[in-house]
Amino acid sequence: MSWYNVLLDAAPALNEKTDSIGDATRALSQEIPASITLDELLTGVTETVASSDKTKPEDLKRVQKALLVTLTCLQQPDRIQESHSDQDTARELARVVSAAIAPVLPFLKDDNGLPASFNDALSSTRKDLNKHCKATSVIGLQCLEAIDNVFNPSTLDDDTLLTLIAYSHPDENWSEDPIKTAKLAAAILKTYPFPNKADFITSKVLQSYLRPLFSKSKPSTITSSGRKAEYQTDNSRDGIPDDTAATKPWKFTDLRSIPVFSWAVTEADNALISTHWPSYIPVLLTLADDSTTSIRRTGLTILTNFLTKIPAKTLQDTGLGQVFADAVFPTLSYLPSLTPEEESLQLLEPAYKALLVLAEKQPATGDKNKHKLLDRLIREGIFTGYFHAKSHVKIAELLCREMGEIVEEMGVHAVKHLKDLIPMISAILTDPFASAAPQTLLSAVKALQAVLGNCWPRLQTGSVWQDEIVNAVVMCWLNLDEPTSNISQDSLEEIRKGLVTCFQALSAIAKTEGGTDLAARVEPLVAKAPSLAGLFSVPS
Fold it and tell me: CA-based diameter of the chain, in Å?
């Protein structure tokens, strides 16, 4: 029996907690022979993990033990005999270790080709793979860190780099402490000198790695060159998304793909995006249209990042601006009760953000396009969303928050929507139970401030909206005084301060061009309700 097998048998079992790794390596280090070679270690580890199945618990324990033996040996570099081939051996050992912890399956067992909605094997396998990653990621990354510290291989296998990139993404739940794990992976990557990062992104990541994975799930809205398609076909099966392992290996068999793609967008500069944008488009649209909430949300976030870097002229010349808008707008309809409130909140915020960034890119291609997109956003997004889900206070809060940002972006052009903006805000402010959701109330107050700041030319003396705004602000103030209001003191003060700002802004608007003095008009109200004096304290 080789020294490696002796250590493998002696290695203790590990759990997902990283605290036990240090104790285990210290205990196992007593069993290491005085002289070992890196080639012997590589051979032993390869034989152990090469045939392992990441969905089997018994194989998981063997992989854990193999990684523990590897880490223990690397922590005793004085016992490793030097060899002229150590650099190449270390590079290969890094590849084997990264393959052992990679969230990748070479095949999907028991897959019957059905979409995920009807296929228990897909969800079960993903859970098993996630469990494997949680149990091996930390010790595997520690092995890679030790290889880098001891042997510092000049190059790393592309697959090793892809695994490190995937683990450097803190949003992926592949360990008990994703942020700590991501920092460890990022630290290893930082020491690796990419000869040409731009070439690695375009050639290795986008073309060699991602393109084959997404080739069967490319949306019909674009051509093979990444431009807007004139004719589109439906890729679904009678309305059912083609959510299978065969068409979406990036979703079911290689879970590195999404974080790696996110990295490829983040690390690319504007010049790279402006040149190689066609390679990004299929993946962007596929993720932004996926049926799984977490993936769609991530796709929208990545799309927002991408839109900040792509030239506005490219969006216009290729028709991609319209393609992106058409891809994101359907997400705004993911509202309760058809969509659970929590999932709706997860999707709406990144969707609005992506569309606002897209609108910001429009000035270089003509203000008319920008206003058209913002008009559509406020009509099909804010107003439609409020109509369908106004009873959900968290949704109403988000819509008010987004409304404020859209109005700020529209500027004075938002006046065309006053007939819908004011009634929506007023309904929230005058709700007698609004204090039960102070954040929603505060969002409505801030939205009103945005309306006053941008639409003031239509709110001067004689405007039909002045009285409604005054009424809304007054009713909100009085409702906050009700004994049934359980609002906290901090929230109460913040909302009241916002209401005072609203009234002061409206008073300033009313005084323009010789208008009326609102303070004088509201004196009778103060006489009836003295508490309103705090609201109507307009500075001279």
Answer: 99
Cross-strand pairs, 240: 237
Mean pLDDT of 427-438: 93
In angstroms, rounded to a whole number, what is the distance separating the alpha carbons of residues 233 and 242? 13
Which has the closest alpha carbon to 108: 46, 160, 54? 54
CA distance 73 to 71: 5
User: Looking at residue 399, what DSSP letter applies?
Assistant: H
CB 303 within 8 A of CB 324: yes
DSSP E strands in 407-529: the ranges are none
Structure tokens at 93: 């050992």
Please check whether residue 45 is in contact with residue 117, taking contact to mean a CB–CB distance below 8 angstroms: no
For 173, the 3-state DSSP assignment is coil
Q: Which two tokens stand for residue 431?
A: 């709700």
122 neighbors 168 (Cβ within 8 angstroms): no
Residue 237 in this model has a pLDDT that exceeds 50: no
Q: How many Å apart are CA 271 and CA 170, to the nearest integer?
A: 26
The rounded percent of the chain whose pLDDT value lies above 90 is: 70
First to last CA, the chain: 93
Residue in the block written with tokens 């819908």: 420
d(CA 531, CA 528): 9
Q: Phi and psi dihedrals of 104, rounded to 5? A: -135, 140
Say what the pLDDT of residue 259 is: 97
Helix axes 178-190, 120-150, angle to 10 degrees: 50
HSE-CB of 112 using CA atoms within 13 angstroms: 9
Comparing C-alpha atoms, which of 49, 6, 63 is closest to residue 30?
Answer: 6
Interatomic CA distance for residues 138 and 149, integer angstroms: 16
pLDDT of residue 540: 46
Asked whether residue 319 carries a pLDDT value surpassing 70, the answer given is yes
d(CA 65, CA 49): 10
CA dihedral 98, 100, 102, 107 (to 10 degrees): 130
